[in-house]
Amino acid sequence: MKLFLDTASVAEIRTMWETGILDGVTTNPTLVAKEGRRFEEVLREICALGVPSVSAEVVATTAEAMVGEGRHLRGLHPAIYVKVPMTPAGLRATKVLAAEGTRVNMTLVFSATQALLAAKVGATYVSPFIGRLDDQSQVGMDLIRDIVQIYRNYRFATQVLVASIRHPIHVLEAAKIGADIATMPYGVMEKLAQHPLTDLGLARFLKDWEKVPKA
Ligand code: E4P
After folding, report:
1. Which CATH class is domain 2-209?
2. Residue 121 contacts by C-beta under 8 Å, 6 or more apart in sequence?
3. Nearest CA to ligand 1 atom 5
4. Could you tell me what percent of the chain has a pLDDT over 70?
5. DSSP secondary structure string, 42-87?
6. Which of 16, 36, 114, 127 has the greatest number of C-beta atoms within 10 Å?
7. Given ligand 1 and candidates 6, 7, 104, 183, which is best to mutate, with the most ligand atoms within 8 Å of its CB?
8. What residue's CA is closest to ligand 1, atom 4?
């Protein structure tokens, strides 16, 4: 399973990139706005780290304008995946961009039928937002199960990128289902490595090591 960071913070991405566990980055307009920096400058810095998959979202709302914006973003760096919203215009734009070889990440997906359409128009990634479904008293992980099954049934090549992850259990469940990718905030990725028994165990080993004669 690939692990992506859902952030536009270059500092967070650099730190995680150096650990060797990071496979990609997803951004969205909200995350970019938090940084207070120019979008393309941020994208260039992320790509310069060597991150192989960096999702950058279009903000146009017509298919024609999405295609234009998508082409521009794709041209910034070979690692860029163009994020397109799941709307009728987004579907049309994805069909055109995918046919040209642009890798599209269809975002704002909240149902299995939307995911089916994303695969049919050739999206490389589909991004179902599970945390936002949980917030509406709908079990987000059920959607991941449905999408994975549908894609397997028809051998779609579109990869399931589980988004809007809020905690490590989301990552664990998505991995058990067999989702291709999980994108998460920095804090969640940090927690994947942590366990209090690891910290306690290490503290005890180091304390006991002091008792070992050194000479
Ligand atoms: C994914 O690509 C989105 O940027 C993200 O996961 C949305 O998460 P949120 O619901 O926490 O804003």
Report:
1. alpha beta
2. 91, 94, 95, 98, 106
3. 164
4. 100
5. HHHHHHHTT-S-EEEE----SHHHHHHHHHHHHHH-TTEEEEEESS
6. 127
7. 6
8. 28
Domain ranges of the chain: 2-209
Q: Is pLDDT of 215 > 90?
A: no
The CA-based angle 150-151-152, given to 5 degrees, is 90
Ligand 1 closest atom vs CA 163: 6
Phi, psi of 200, deg, nearest 5: -65, -45
**Which tokens in the block code for residue 198?**
């690891």
| Residue pLDDT, tens place only, 42-91 | 999 999 999 999 999 999 999 999 999 999 999 999 999 999 999 999 99
Residues acting as catalytic residues: 83
Its pTM surpasses 0.90: yes
Ligand 1 atom 10: the closest Cα is on which residue? 164
* Substitution candidate for ligand 1 out of 2, 28, 82, 160 with most atoms within 8 A of CB: 28
